């Protein structure tokens, strides 16, 4: 679990070595962003829907305890077992114990970013439990011993040739085969066998409804349902912020979720679980793992409104050009960068700096989280807390000295321009981070200030 | 103190000042023709919509569409003669053999092509997922405009229900759309006029 963490900027540099690959990654995600745009523009009430969703989620934050208690009571009435886990370790123990009690050592799992956050698969595997991820993208990265690189599109960093080679090795597909139809069919056969033979299924939770005690799981593939309806025991894991007040609120969130994520009007399956089927056991694990702390941070609590659509990643110029793995966190991209420091400030101090603060993330967020403002605010918290490397701190201090003294600033500008003209190699070298992956621009002849003074005189 | 108590106590301490729910939480979608919109949405997600007059025409169409298919199951009594696979087995794993299931569902949603199906009409929850091909039958009149209208109809839900919109799909390999991930490889929706 204690893997060495490579800082985002360093990991991005590796990612950027293969230029055509980065271009492809960038364009693929931008295409998804465009699908979101088209789809959202078909709804005249889109902006109002975002406003309403944000309002409901604000209500949820301020009534969290009451809603969770109501949910628990209803769920119990429905015959569902409810468990509470203070942290990742307790969550993992609960899952392990449920499996042990039922003498189960093999389980299928549909997408759950919470179990990624808790490193559950690793823990269960060490305890003799085999976990098979059943979402196609997740199965692909699992076979590669990698975490997902995107919360909605787990294998978006891979080319079909990579997947063809992987399936040839693990699923016995023909060598060199890259046809997505053929590869998907092979995975379908491989996973159908797992669905039919596993007695336990774990799913995530997209929305938990306080009013009914039910919960909704959204997939396109149908893997959550295939697992849950064939298994003797269904375990659903949720961070406590997944709660919403009433069933009708689902209309607002389901209208926003898939349109924001992939541009679809809704996912293929929006499965509403309320009671276990006859003879089945259903368990819900409500997890904290730092969420109560985040709820107490006035500047950052809004991050708990997230519905995990991934729109902020698809639009982010830094995510698109650095890839999800560079963020070394279960949730990558802009939203991951404001969630991760709450989990561990030292390990994740680099992430809020992995942004241009362009604000595109906040503009596409379906629940109106002020993501770029929070990125900016985290930087200040992290620097003050001493979590940022000294070089970065020195740079910021030097910048502050220059920018706070107009004469010094003017002199520095002149010096910089003349250096770029006369001794370009002093600037155009590997020591200058602005020279990486790009040429330096032609230095202007004069500053705007000089130009302005000259023209005013004329 | 249990984790439950600790979490709830921490939430109480840390939660923000009280805010209220938005006053308006629903919107109307105004389509010229709800059924046309429903069909248009479904066509875009590889789903065929067929209007049938009555159960006799449904049986005839089902016969034509799935003529050479074996292991046909249904929850619709009028298709009893058409089906050759019994749903009476209590073990859902037995459903794995089913090639086509024609199932009674409740209503459709025009904005996204979703159809609601629930325990109320299903002997097995696994059925709409495990069958290789799927068809729903809903009353022609039972199409609402959008999800707000849908949840107004769903004031009370059973133990389990699902909105299903199109056949199962994935784009996890280089964003190439493939129909038939883990669930149904094809979906047909019959709109029944006399229901």
TrEMBL record, chain A:
It comes from the Bacteria. Residues 296-326 form the 4Fe-4S ferredoxin-type domain. Keywords: 4Fe-4S, Electron transport, Iron, Iron-sulfur, Metal-binding, Repeat, Transport. Gene3D superfamilies: Alpha-helical ferredoxin, NagB/RpiA/CoA transferase-like. Pfam families: Fer4_8, LUD_dom. The keyword Coiled coil does not apply. One of its GO terms (biological process) is lactate metabolic process. The keyword Transport applies. PROSITE patterns: 4FE4S_FER_1, 4FE4S_FER_2. One of its GO terms (molecular function) is 4 iron, 4 sulfur cluster binding. InterPro entries: 4Fe4S_Fe-S-bd, 4Fe4S_Fe_S_CS, FTHF_cligase-like_sf, Helical_ferredxn, LUD_dom, LutB/LldF, NagB/RpiA_transferase-like. PANTHER family: LACTATE UTILIZATION PROTEIN B. This is L-lactate dehydrogenase complex protein LldF. It comes from Dyadobacter psychrophilus.
Automatic annotation (TrEMBL), chain B:
PANTHER family: LACTATE UTILIZATION PROTEIN C. It comes from Dyadobacter psychrophilus. InterPro entries: FTHF_cligase-like_sf, LUD_dom, NagB/RpiA_transferase-like. The lineage of its organism: Bacteria, Pseudomonadati, Bacteroidota, Cytophagia, Cytophagales. Residues 98-191 form the LUD domain. Pfam families: LUD_dom (PF02589). This is L-lactate dehydrogenase complex protein LldG.
């Amino acid at each position: 679990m204690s893997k060495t963490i490579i800082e985002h900027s360093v990991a991005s540099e590796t990612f950027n070595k293969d230029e055509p690959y980065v271009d492809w990654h960038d364009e693929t995600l931008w295409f998804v962003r465009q699908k979101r745009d088209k789809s959202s523009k078909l709804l005249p009430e889109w902006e109002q829907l975002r406003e309403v969703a944000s309002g409901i989620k604000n209500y949820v934050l301020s009534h969290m305890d009451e809603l969770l208690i109501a949910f628990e009571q209803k769920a119990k009435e429905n015959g569902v077992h409810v468990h509470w886990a203070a942290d990742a370790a307790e969550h993992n123990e609960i899952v392990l114990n449920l499996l042990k009690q039922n003498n189960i050592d093999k389980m299928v799992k549909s997408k759950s970013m919470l179990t990624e956050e808790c490193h559950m698969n690793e823990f269960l595997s060490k305890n003799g439990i085999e976990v098979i991820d059943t979402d196609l993208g997740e199965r692909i990265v699992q076979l590669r011993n990698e975490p997902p690189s995107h919360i909605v599109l787990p294998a978006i960093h891979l080319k079909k040739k990579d997947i063809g080679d992987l399936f040839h090795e693990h699923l016995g597909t023909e060598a060199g085969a890259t046809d997505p139809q053929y590869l998907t069919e092979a995975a379908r056969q491989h996973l159908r066998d797992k669905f039919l033979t596993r007695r336990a299924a774990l799913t995530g939770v997209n929305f938990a409804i306080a009013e009914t005690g039910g919960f909704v799981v959204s997939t396109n593939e149908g893997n959550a349902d295939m697992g849950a309806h064939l298994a003797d025991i269904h375990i659903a894991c949720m961070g406590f912020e997944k709660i919403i007040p009433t069933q009708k609120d689902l209309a607002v969130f389901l209208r926003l979720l898939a349109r924001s994520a992939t541009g679809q009007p809704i996912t293929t399956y929006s499965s509403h679980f309320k009671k276990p089927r006859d003879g089945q056991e259903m368990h819900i694990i409500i997890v904290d793992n730092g969420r109560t702390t985040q709820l107490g941070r006035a500047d950052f609590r809004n991050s708990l409104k997230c519905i995990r659509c991934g729109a902020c990643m698809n639009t982010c110029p830094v995510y698109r050009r650095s890839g999800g793995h560079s963020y070394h966190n279960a949730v990558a991209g802009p939203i991951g960068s404001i969630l991760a420091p709450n989990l561990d400030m030292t390990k994740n101090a680099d992430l809020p700096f992995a942004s241009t603060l362009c604000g595109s993330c906040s503009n596409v967020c379906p629940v109106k989280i002020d993501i770029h403002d929070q990125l900016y605010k985290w930087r200040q918290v992290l620097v003050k807390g001493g979590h940022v490397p000294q070089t970065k701190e020195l740079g910021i201090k030097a910048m502050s000295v220059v920018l706070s003294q107009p004469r010094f600033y003017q002199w520095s500008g002149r010096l910089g321009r003349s250096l770029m003209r006369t001794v370009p190699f002093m600037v155009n070298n590997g020591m200058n981070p602005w020279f990486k992956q790009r040429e330096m621009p032609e230095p202007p002849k004069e500053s705007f200030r000089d130009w302005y003074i000259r023209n005013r005189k004329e | 103190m249990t984790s439950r108590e600790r979490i709830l106590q921490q939430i109480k301490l840390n939660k923000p000042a009280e805010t209220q729910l938005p006053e308006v939480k629903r919107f109307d979608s105004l389509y010229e023709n709800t059924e046309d919109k429903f069909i248009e949405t479904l066509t875009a997600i590889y789903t065929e919509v067929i209007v049938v007059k009555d159960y006799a025409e449904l049986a005839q169409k089902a016969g034509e569409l799935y003529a050479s298919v074996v292991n046909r199951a249904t929850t619709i009594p009028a298709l009893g003669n058409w089906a050759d696979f019994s749903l009476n087995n209590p073990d859902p794993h037995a459903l794995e053999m089913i090639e086509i299931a024609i199932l009674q569902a409740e209503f459709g949603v025009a904005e996204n092509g979703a159809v609601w199906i629930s325990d109320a009409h299903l002997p097995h929850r696994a059925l709409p997922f495990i069958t290789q091909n799927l068809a729903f039958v809903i009353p022609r009149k039972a199409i609402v405009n959008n999800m707000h209208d849908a949840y107004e109809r769903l004031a009370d839900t059973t133990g389990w229900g699902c909105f299903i919109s199109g056949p199962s799909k994935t784009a996890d390999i280089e964003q190439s759309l493939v129909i038939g991930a883990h669930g149904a490889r094809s979906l047909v929706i019959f709109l029944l006029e006399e229901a």
